[in-house]
Design goal:
binds flavin-adenine dinucleotide, five-stranded antiparallel β-sheet, binds iron/sulfur cluster, seven-stranded antiparallel β-sheet, alpha/beta, 43 helices, 1007 residues
Length: 1007
């Protein structure tokens, strides 16, 4: 009889003895096989504990089965410390409470899975914060930050994690819960362990003095120096030894944190920011040592490559321009962001002046942009925080690789160190982009390497040469991101064999059975072992004929120039789809909960499976044959895609542009080809095809509309079709947009020719506004006419022109292409003559600018895309250009009556993804007295047909309840504007309030 596998045994026992969620399937384990490093190891199983008791049970069972334990937070580590053949325990879903805030003592006690931003949001009203401000603050957990001894941009003022943790209650491998705090108060096992480590510290005192880097940013090894501090900054203000500091930076290899008590700091009331523009990179590096003497709270570098990448990105361009002395001059080689913070503003302004005169003394007069306004400063900090991610958007197999990215050197050597490291990069045919913590000598840099080809060889060679530099300048090889796999082997190099031996003794004393995260810090593997890499020379992608055109991703790049080859030349057997999926570098940015959209399904489930990263990993594993053999069409992939609402939040907000909505279309096209369509799929996908038939038959329309009034009919549709009985369906109308006076069968070529230069707008009537809410079409036409335009609503003899959106959403790409081609044939002559094509339904009109460009529709699609606009976007642009027709003799300008109600605006996700939400506000502001307010929402949750589907109705409502519906309920008298048909339905189902298309609101206010 076959012996049951470890995975099987773990699952069986964990399910019996704990309330944790347990995952043993290969896809779930695969999603926990990576962090933000270059490594991958499939764990034995994944445990998501609800409580501390679940963790205790897991530790005990794993110990008995001799399976290692790997604690995990956001999984955003860069060195591979969160990967391993272990039982992974994910704290981030449930084990994340704020247990106590002690305002008098400025401390907070948290569970390890609490995310830094969430903690700081709680602390804000106490005017306190936790000041270890890592760039991943939206997803890094306190447990993970402590595990890595993380450091923020303001470490020069506040120190690293080790300086800001005062107690850790942790479980040892035998399950004993031990309090680690001040040595003098230690008892029992903590005292015993403390004494043992103190003995080692004494024994190796002289070696510690000799080998320990004397910089703030040393995070390698265990903190054996707590008994005789080697850090630039004392670990405690009173010199007392704190045993919790032994656990900080231990990367889950000594004990499992149950709760952590943190030292808080008062929120600085004021800040000023000086942005120094340098025309010479070395000068910037050299200046840092002088600037820190002015007492800044941060000095951060952004180099030219990153500035240029940021300037090329519409999301960052205007912000970066605020940092430039002259935005029309060539981009500076570097900028330094120098922040001063404190209780009073006046001294900070003085410090800024001192900075200006310092720079003049250093030969750089007029080089500082002075920023006093908090929002301007905040915007620039956000761009700096996005730095690494901006860099990671490079397409092709060569990627900026993290392995020497946070070496820390004393400031006086920074210029020399960066120059020499740059030479090393060139020697190996690559280059790096420099950014981050100039104040503490930790500059991030990642050379571009292709790990599937010669990357591993070059990585080792560069690391060897870089280590010589670090030693020469008495720096720390690991200055921020920990050891993990990429730095583990350098611990002995850094500290010498005796101290390395002492680390082994510490590990043995804490964790004699080597249960916790083995191979990290002690007995590490080589950094370039192929079997540990995510991409390696034997990595293979299975061939796939894609339905969408992914050739833009199918490229390679030049590591020196970052130029990419022509589309389609990247040799991806999956025609670019695999390379698009591989753009996800696992940084975990999609786990955020801030004002953006991404990722609504994660926001409500907190499941790795329902996260953009989880989906990208699932697809990557499937495409590289690491899951079941039937590749893309497996149930596993379907499950991961199931809750993706195709909101396109990731398209805009994922720093590397992972566009999961398009990937879902690609997936569905293969899946549906294999398994066919359900009746519900057909009814939804083919609405545009049969809508005309129903609208011409009033009796049939009335009968169908009964479904919303008669409960048993609703229940029947739920049973037969899977459409939730809790939903109202759009009501069939017998008068459609095409019955309006604005339609025409089309113009002849000669007429279009004659109309060139005239004020004609093609108003595209989509299925939803055309058949179900034709009032919106009339309103839009009326407003456009009032503004002086000729309005043309295209119409067909039979049916109507359709963009194919419902077919696309159903994965019916071939049929969608036929529809799209027909629409393009109609629209192209108008677009070519420069006429605007305007649409009301965001997901329909914007698909002309998005999916159409990936459907192989040729250059016509490009031209039409350039001339397609949402209704309000077109009007807003025309206002900006002051372009309202004046030749028109009918009505010369729009005039509105005064607004007498508040207006709340909910942006459709696709409007957000294309950054066309602001025009809604712009056009509403044309109404005198209107003060429209944008509701900060993620997706409304309805997302086309998603929220109607019986299995998704509940989760759809949860998405809406995150913020949209509560905000609407709190403003009972406001007009609610929502341009998306499904958003309007969601709002009505959730609040019984009718939301309006912006065109209707403008029409209502026309004089
Ligand atoms: C784009 C990007 C930017 C970054 N910027 C910064 C930065 O500014 N500063 C910085 O310091 N780092 C930075 N990092 C690295 C990383 O984000 C941080 O180290 C972060 O603190 C890790 O948090 P996490 O929750 O993701 O931890 P994880 O990666 O999940 O875990 C980190 C370590 O802690 C251990 N651990 C987790 N929970 C426990 C527990 N309960 N008990 C014991 N051990 C535990 C894990 O085993 C692992 O070894 C960056 C990473 C990326 C991708
Ligand atoms: S999907 Fe994007 S945001 Fe999420 S982890 Fe991957 S790269 Fe980061
Ligand atoms: S499209 Fe929306 S739901 Fe889907 S992965 Fe992207 S952000 Fe998440």
């Amino acid at each position: 009889m076959n012996k049951p596998s470890v995975t099987h045994l773990l699952a069986e026992r964990l399910k019996k003895s704990s309330s944790a969620e347990i995952f043993t399937d290969i896809a779930s384990r695969g999603r926990y096989a990576t962090d933000a490093s270059i490594y991958q190891t499939i764990p034995h199983a994944v445990c998501v504990p609800h409580t501390g008791d679940d963790v205790v049970a897991a530790i005990q069972i794993a110990r008995e089965l001799e399976v290692p334990i790997l604690p995990r937070g956001g999984g955003t580590s860069q060195c591979g410390q969160t990967t391993g053949a272990a039982l992974v325990i994910d704290n981030s879903k449930y084990f994340r409470d704020l247990l106590e805030v002690n305002v008098a003592e400025n401390t907070a006690t948290v569970q390890p899975g609490m995310v830094l931003d969430h903690l700081n949001a709680h602390l804000k009203h106490h005017q306190l914060w936790y000041p270890v401000d890592v760039s991943t603050s939206g997803q890094a957990t306190i447990g993970g930050m402590a595990g890595n001894n993380s450091c923020g941009s303001r470490s020069i003022a506040y120190g690293n994690m080790v300086h800001n943790v005062s107690d850790i209650d942790a479980w040892l491998a035998n399950g004993e819960l031990v309090k680690f705090g001040l040595m003098e108060e230690a008892q029992g096992r903590a005292k015993q362990l403390g004494e043992m480590v103190r003995g080692l510290a004494l024994q190796y005192q002289s070696e510690i003095d000799q080998h320990w880097p004397k910089v703030l940013r040393r995070v390698a090894g265990y903190n054996l120096d707590i008994f005789h501090n080697q850090n630039e900054r004392p670990y405690t203000s009173d010199g007392k030894v704190n045993l919790a500091h032994l656990l900080v930076g231990s990367e889950g290899s000594l004990a499992y944190f149950k709760q952590l008590r943190l030292k808080l700091a008062p929120l600085p009331k004021h800040k000023t920011l000086g942005v120094i523009n340098f025309l010479n990179f070395q000068k910037a590096m050299d200046s840092a040592q002088h600037i820190v003497k002015l007492g800044p709270s941060a000095v951060e570098l952004v180099d030219r490559t990153m500035l240029d990448l940021g300037l090329a990105n519409p999301e960052f361009q205007s912000v970066i321009e605020t940092a430039l002395i002259d935005k029309d001059a060539p981009t500076p080689e570097a900028i330094l962001l120098v922040e001063f913070s404190g209780e009073e503003q006046a001294p900070l302004i003085n410090q800024l002046k001192e900075l200006v005169s310092l720079m003049a003394d250093l030969g750089l007069p007029n080089s500082v942009v002075e920023m006093i306004h908090p929002q301007t400063q905040k915007n620039l900090w956000e761009v700096r925080k996005a730095g690494l991610n901006i860099m990671m958007s490079l397409k092709g197999d060569g990627k900026p690789v993290s392995f020497i990215e946070d070496c820390a050197v004393p400031l006086e050597h920074l210029a020399q160190y960066t120059a020499e490291l740059t030479d090393i990069f060139s020697k190996y045919g690559t280059r790096g982009t420099w950014y981050a913590h100039a104040s503490v000598g930790t500059l991030h840099v990642r050379p571009i390497l292709d790990m599937r080809r010669d990357g591993t060889v070059k990585m080792r060679a560069i690391a060897e040469e870089a280590s010589v530099l670090v030693k020469k300048y008495k720096g720390a090889f690991s200055g921020e991101h920990g050891d993990g796999i990429s730095r583990g082997e350098w611990i002995q190099w850094q500290f010498g064999s005796n101290i390395n031996q002492a680390f082994t003794q510490i590990k043995n004393a804490f964790d004699p059975s080597n249960l916790f995260n083995p191979g990290k810090i002690v007995n590490p593997p080589k950094m370039d072992e192929h079997h540990l890499l995510r991409f390696h020379p034997k990595y293979e992608v299975r061939s796939l004929n894609t339905t969408l055109d992914w050739s833009a991703w199918n490229v390679q790049n030049n590591p020196m120039t970052e130029e990419v080859t022509a589309p389609g030349t990247g040799k991806d057997p999956a025609q670019g789809f695999a390379k698009a999926v591989e753009m996800c570098n696992n940084n975990g940015h999609c786990r955020k909960f801030d004002a953006g959209t991404m990722c609504p399904s994660y926001r409500v489930t907190r499941d790795e499976q329902h996260l953009t990263r989880g989906r990208a990993n699932t697809l990557r594993l499937a495409l590289s044959n690491q899951l079941e053999k039937n590749l893309l069409t497996s149930q596993t992939v379907k499950d991961a895609m199931d809750l993706c609402v195709s909101c396109k939040g990731c398209k805009k907000e994922c720093p590397t542009g992972v566009d999961m909505a398009k990937m879902k279309i690609e997936f569905l096209s293969h899946y549906k080809k294999k398994y066919g369509l359900s009746l519900r799929d057909r009814l939804i996908a083919y609405v545009p095809q049969y809508a005309s038939f129903i609208s011409k038959r009033p009796k049939l329309a009335a009968l169908l509309n009964l479904r919303n009034k008669v409960p048993w009919m609703a229940k029947l549709t739920e049973l037969l079709l899977g459409i939730s009985a809790k939903r109202s369906l759009p009501m069939w109308q017998t008068t459609t947009a095409w019955d309006s006076p604005y339609y025409k069968m089309g113009y002849d070529d000669w007429q279009i020719e004659c109309m060139a230069g005239q004020d004609l707008v093609v108003l595209f009537a989509d299925t939803f506004n055309g058949y179900f809410e034709q009032d919106n079409m009339n309103a839009a036409a009326e407003v456009l006419e009032a503004a002086g335009y000729w309005v043309y609503i295209p119409r067909k003899d039979q049916g109507h022109y359709c963009c194919g959106r419902t077919l696309l959403s159903g994965g019916l790409i071939d049929e969608a292409k036929v529809q799209a081609q027909e629409l393009l044939d109609l629209l192209y002559p108008y677009a070519e003559k420069g006429f605007a094509i305007v649409g009301l339904e965001p997901s329909c009109i914007l698909s002309l600018r998005d999916e159409y460009l990936m459907m192989g529709l040729g250059p016509q699609a490009e031209i039409v895309a350039k001339h397609s606009f949402t209704f309000e976007e077109f009007i807003a642009q025309e206002i900006q250009k002051n372009n309202f027709p004046t030749k028109n003799t009918r009505i010369k300008k729009l005039e509105f009556r005064e607004a007498d109600q508040d207006i709340l605006v909910h942006g459709h996700c696709h409007q957000k993804a294309f950054e066309v939400t602001n025009p809604i506000l712009d056009v509403l502001k044309m109404i005198p007295g209107a003060k429209p307010k944008l509701i900060e929402t993620s997706c409304c949750g309805m997302a086309g047909s998603f929220g109607y589907e019986v299995e998704h109705q509940e989760i759809s409502m949860q998405m809406a309840e995150l913020s949209l519906l509560p905000t609407i309920r709190s403003s009972p008298n406001a007009i609610i504007v929502a341009d998306g048909t499904s958003c309007r339905h969601q709002i009505e189902d959730g609040t019984s309030r009718k939301a309006l298309h912006v065109a209707k609101v403008l029409q209502m206010h026309l004089k």
